[in-house]
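Memo to structure team: turn this sequence into structure tokens by end of day. - J.P.
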Amino acid sequence: MSIAVNAEFDAGNAELVSIDEANTVRLTIRKDNQSDFLQWFYFRVTGARDLACTFVIENAAQTTYPAGWEHYDVVTSHDLKHWYRTPSHYDQQALSWSITPRHDVMYFAYFAPYALDRLNTFVTTCANEPAVRMQPLGKTLDGRDLDYLHVAALEPKSHPSDRPQIWCVARQHPGETMASWWVEGWLNRLLDRNDATSVALRELADIHVVPNMNPDGSYRGHLRTNACGANLNREWAEPSMERSPEVFLVKQKMSSTGVDLCMDIHGDEALPYNFIAGTEGVADWNDERDQQLIGFKRTLSALNPDFQYEHGYPRNPPNSANLSFCSNNTAHAFGCPAYTLEMPFKDTANRPRTQTGWSPERSAALGASFVDAVYLAITNRLL
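Reply from structure team:
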């Protein structure tokens, strides 16, 4: 049986260059459609059982974030259920790793993939909960539904106009699949009828969730863009149905509900930490909003030590906010806290786990922790 490589499936991205007699498999990563972004890869290997193989991504140095390969180990699975790390090496030109597969099928990816089939199953399960109302906000450029979930108590304790409106959007950048695993943790905890904090949060607030802002890019195996090459997290100032319907439709819905807290869920290629980027550059930033941000980060780090607030992006200077970003635009439009959560593609430097690195399970656990953090922010009047 000869070695074969395939990436023609949901979220797949790899182009085979060659396979030699020494079982060295050379590949390249494909660019996002109508864009120069590239970094996400995901492919399947068959016919390599018990063969000592070396895999080489030849254009690693030409990717969007080459620093992301430093101290990075490849995500690996033989069953699409359990994902672990295979040590890799980056020599400033190519990314390579060696492995002797013990199974007939092996998968390698930049991070644990999150297929649209899994998303459909998950949102359907959520939609069958009495506390959830689900609807598509509209269609993407490839004709997919942009799913939206509204979560609230069956018998709220106050009128909608008196309850905080909590928004959560994920996967604006489709290659950042840890965001989908985070959403699973967030919603599974939020919908747990036996979890007192979750029940209380649903009584206090309305929660609005767009589990995948970019289903087209997700299916196409893109890193950062939608079907036409638009980076959605640079479209919030002037979205359009022609170029960025995903953002246009979400902003339209936000306008109808209002926003008291927005959480935009992402992954960072280079930094080995979980952290929150705030909106300090918006025009009406003040000490009260700064304390809201500091308090939320400190609370979250106490709830889940995988989160930390010492490392992250530099604070934005006053009046420097780029309003094409989701968090900046939302904070500016609604005068509310808006947080961009970044999770690593690598491991966390503060709490490393060599076998798995940052993983789907840890992403989901962090999502679950946000239930407590948001509940405490509301009850402590930090919103």
